[in-house]
Amino acid sequence: MRILGELGEDVIEIARKITNEGSICDHCLGRQIAKISSGLSNEQRGKILKEVLREKEGELKEGKCWVCNGLFEHLEYWVSKALEKLKDYEFDSFLVGTKVSGLLLENEELLWEIAGASYAEPLKAELNREVGKRIEHETGKIVDFKLPDLVVILNLWTETVELQVKAVFIYGRYRKLKRGISQTRWLCRECRGKGCERCDFTGKMYPESVEELISDSLREEFQGEEMVLHGCGREDIDARMLGSGRPFVVELKEPRRRNVDLRMAEEKVNEEKRGKVEVRDLRYVNREMVAKIKNAKMDKTYRIEVELKTKVLEEEVKNALERLSGALIEQRTPTRVLHRRADLVRKRNVHSARLVSIEEQNAVMEIKCGAGLYIKELISGDEGRTKPSFSEVLGVEAEVKELDVLDVDLDIEVEDVVNREAVR
Ligand SMILES: [Zn+2]
Ligand SMILES: [Zn+2]
Q1: Which residues are catalytic?
Q2: What is the mean pLDDT of the chain?
Q3: What are the tens digits of pLDDT across the range 336-365?
Q4: Which of 329, 407, 412, 413 lies closest to 372, judged by CA?
Q5: What are 175-185's pLDDT values in tens digits?
């Protein structure tokens, strides 16, 4: 036998010591010399070693393996347990992991004391691979070491199979058509979510959020446990988000489905949340996209309805906006956000400003500005903290009555995850 020459006396000696200790299965014997020869499974290595030993010194002890306690003879038990769990989930790739019990860890240590561990592979590596191969065979899905959709954990302590499910990330843009909707769930300040009189026992500051409205429909499609919305900035609660919408990424946690037709999902959201929220341009993306949109700088276009405290000629309003167009604004942190931001002077750009209409003391204007400009203060001047301001340039007190965001210009590329359908 050619393999015998390759194995050498030291390997035979290892095998002799182990088999003298008690009966051992092919898997456990073979994995003790896993690092010596390649191209064979541990089971095959074990079989060959046993043949060699039998030739040299007669029959070996028979019975349940003293190292794995018969684990490898009952692989099907774990495979079927895993398949039972997996049947509720849609996935393309997976990985198997094992939590080894104390008894088996002790056996393993004992084994290494007897035979040395220089060529050995741990029990869990063998179990992960063998169960993985069988699941691949049964399901046609592939083992992925890097970024599997599912991690199947064989818990030998509790004799159960646990699943870790990779979240699905979806990029899109939302339009908020109604005022008074917050971007994300906002816990009641008073009770921190427990429910009290102030919040009418909802635990929330505002009854509705874009996050919850979208989540309702999407969680149903993906059969996920939870959905989190990461917005690319946020508009005020009383501002609508119109135009092309605001970029966002949603994270769907523990989804049972992950190959949802996004055009259909989009229609479902828009149908169910008509008049409140709309989504568009939904695409599968990677987790990295969350940080990207969080850090993105974007220009914004606002439609603003402004109340002028004194009657002013249309020409004067036009001139004031003309002067703001292209101006560099020095903006000290607005008083209304001082409680959460450092008191600094920031320089921000107004790219363009134009009057849309004016009626009595109500002016409607469109202003496009760079990232981070507080628009309400650009109009009012915030008692001199924002300079120049519309109010200052016009020489008349002015206040924002209503605000809509018309456009958000994103300065990053959105990379699609490779189309899943195309891979198959
Ligand atoms: Zn064994
Ligand atoms: Zn409350």
Answers
A1: 236
A2: 91
A3: 888 888 999 999 999 999 999 999 999 999
A4: 329
A5: 999 999 999 98
**Cis bond before residue 255 (omega within 30° of 0):** no
Say which residues have a Cβ less than 8 Å from residue 292's Cβ, sequence separation at least 6.
412
Question: What single letter denotes the amino acid at residue 193?
Answer: G
CA of 64 to the centre of ligand 1 (A): 8
Retrieve residue 104's tokens: 């088996």
Q: Which CATH architecture has domain 168-296?
A: 2-Layer Sandwich (3.30)
Q: Which of 322, 304, 377 is nearest to 346 (CA)?
A: 377
Cα maximum dimension of the chain: 111
C-alpha of residue 185 to centroid of ligand 2, in Å = 13
Q: Which ligand is nearest to the CA of 69?
A: 1
pTM of the full structure: 0.84
pLDDT, tens digit (0-9, with 9 covering 90-100), for 28-79: 999 998 888 778 899 999 999 999 999 888 888 888 999 999 999 999 999 9
Q: Which residues of the chain does CATH 3.30.70.3190 include?
A: 298-410
How far, in Å, from the CA of 329 to the mean position of ligand 1? 74
pLDDT in tens, 216-238: 899 999 999 999 999 998 888 99
> CA–CA separation, 17 vs 405, rounded Å?
77
Which segments of the chain belong to CATH 3.30.70.2510? 168-296
Ligand nearest to the CA of 64: 1
- State whether CATH 2.60.120.1440 applies to domain 298-410: no
